[in-house]
Design a protein that fits this description.
Distance between the termini: 61 Å
Number of helices: 15
Number of domains: 2
Structural class: alpha/beta
Number of strands: 17
Strand order of the largest sheet: 12-13-14-15-17
Length: 501
């Protein structure tokens, strides 16, 4: 019999969440390094190196890999011989650990969880509650998996109730391109098959907790149908040419994981959940010997090459930018931005849209004409930081506001991650604006370019308030130019043909 003390369990959950906020696992570092070495697409190769370089900065600085520090999911497998020394439930203890981790003053993590999702959606301010899965198993210890998943990748989850005769592979290959790049590839694709709809989704999520080992499987060869499917899907998804950040390239997935479960004779539930480039999860066991002690990854595993702006990158002074300058930019080009930009994401866009609809003025001190909007909700700064990690959020969510932002307010450019929809691209072209992408998963690296920050509107929105950033050499890539060409469309076409040829 093992006795697990509440304080040890809470401390272990908190330590695990802090750990995965700034350390990538060794298997991920090795897989990304291999992808970097093999990549031939210039924008994709640059994006992968930004992610790896930012990862290294996070590991040494103990600051978040991504500004979206995720919704917490915890799997607890409790041995039936375990006794808890606690007056709290397991879920209450998990939430206590989450609260401690996210409010840690040395490395505060962004609180993203909102109550009342169909109502006022007020932030809980400590990232609770977590999603906790508890199962009783044989033994006298507990096994715990702690994960923190960003909204960009979680929002791309898919579920389809296939017919038993339908092709799993065809469904996956048809679906992945429709998921867009908001999940920040390259990452891991988790697939759950069988059971019921809810079981398939749980299987897909659980599969993402396994180590990245596809190269070992390629070397040794498949031994069963599941392994054969993993290899087939891995090859076919990478042949789509989506590439890092959707910019077009050779590597879209680092691994494909599949878990299955018996199902009804009439059913074939299939769930897909991608893991983003943050890939935050960790496993540990407890047997009553105290709080878990987590060992940092081998810091020598990161590539010796560190990202730096390429010589061909165009330096842009935003404060002196002309329409003619913008019209010279082409999709796939790397830019280095210097000057003032404004931040705005979902909540701020909604307010701006409501003001326009009701013919009301902007808040005092806020002018949008000729400005660039950066879709970001940064982590709070610590120490001498101007701002905490501040990577881009998924731009697609702002598409429905784009025409108002460009035509009514006169915004000239937007910065985010992932593709834009057809209506947004049409508005960008009509208004001779541009859309640029920063690298999702390189939040700490991006934040180094931010030299000053202040809130200038909607301060009640917290991390979603409108900030003014002063940036110097902020790295971005032209994703939609003034002619309405999209790198996410053209890049995928190009690299799909290259892979097939």
């Amino acid at each position: 019999m093992s006795v697990i003390k509440e304080k040890d369990f809470v401390e272990s959950i908190a330590s695990a969440l802090q750990y995965i906020s700034y350390y990538h696992s060794e298997d991920f570092i090795l897989a990304m390094t291999r992808a970097y070495e093999l990549e031939k697409s210039v924008p994709a190769k640059d994006a992968i190196l930004q992610i790896l370089s930012s990862s290294k900065l996070s590991a040494y600085g103990n600051r978040p890999l991504c500004q979206d520090t995720g919704i917490v999911t915890v799997f607890v497998k409790q041995g039936m011989g375990v006794v808890w020394e606690s007056s709290s439930t397991v879920e209450e203890m998990v939430n206590a650990g989450v609260r401690r981790a996210y409010l840690n003053q040395d490395n505060p993590l962004r609180a993203s969880i909102v109550n009342n999702p169909l109502g006022d959606r007020l932030n809980t301010k400590d990232n609770t509650p977590a999603i906790t899965h508890i199962s009783l198993v044989k033994g006298d210890k507990i096994e715990v998996i702690v994960a923190a998943k960003g909204g960009g990748s979680e929002n791309k989850a898919q579920l389809k109730m296939l017919n038993p005769s339908d092709s799993l592979v065809d469904y996956i290959i048809d679906t992945v391109p429709k998921m867009g790049a908001g999940w920040c590839p390259p990452g891991v694709l988790g697939i759950g098959v069988g059971g019921t709809a809810d079981k398939a989704m749980l299987l897909a999520k659980e599969s993402l907790m396994d180590p990245i080992d596809i190269q070992l499987l390629i070397k040794n060869g498949p031994k069963n149908l599941i392994e054969e499917l993993r290899l087939e899907i891995y090859e076919k998804v990478n042949n789509l040419g989506i590439g890092a950040q959707g910019l077009g390239g050779l590597t879209t997935v680092l691994d494909v994981k599949i878990k299955d479960y018996p199902t009804h004779a009439a059913s074939l539930p299939v769930a897909i959940i991608p893991n983003c480039a943050a890939n935050r999860h960790i496993h540990f066991q407890m047997n009553g010997d105290g709080a878990v002690n987590l060992t940092p990854p081998d810091l020598s595993l990161w590539p010796k090459t560190v990202w730096k702006p390429e010589e061909l990158a165009i330096k842009v002074n935003l404060d002196e930018l002309t329409d003619k300058d913008k019209e010279g930019w082409k999709i796939g080009q790397n830019l280095l931005l210097t000057g003032k930009i404004l931040t705005a994401r979902d909540a701020a866009h909604k307010r701006l849209n409501d003001l326009a609809k009701n013919h009301m003025p902007l808040p005092s001190g806020l002018s949008l004409k000729g400005k660039f909007l950066y879709y970001v909700g940064p982590v709070d700064p610590v120490g001498n930081e101007v701002v905490g990690p501040a990577g881009p959020t998924t731009a697609t969510r702002m598409d429905k506001y784009t025409d108002t932002i460009l035509s009514h307010y006169g915004v000239t450019g937007m910065i985010g991650k992932a593709e834009r929809g057809d209506d947004a691209i049409r508005s960008i072209k009509e208004n001779k604006a541009v859309y640029l992408v920063a690298v999702g998963g390189a939040a700490f690296l991006v934040s180094q370019a931010i030299k000053a920050s202040k809130v200038i509107a909607f301060d009640d929105l917290g991390m979603e308030a409108i900030h003014e950033f002063e940036v110097k050499d902020m790295p971005v890539t032209v994703a939609v130019d003034t002619r309405g060409l999209s790198v996410h469309k053209e890049g995928m076409k190009k690299w799909k043909l290259i892979k097939q040829g």
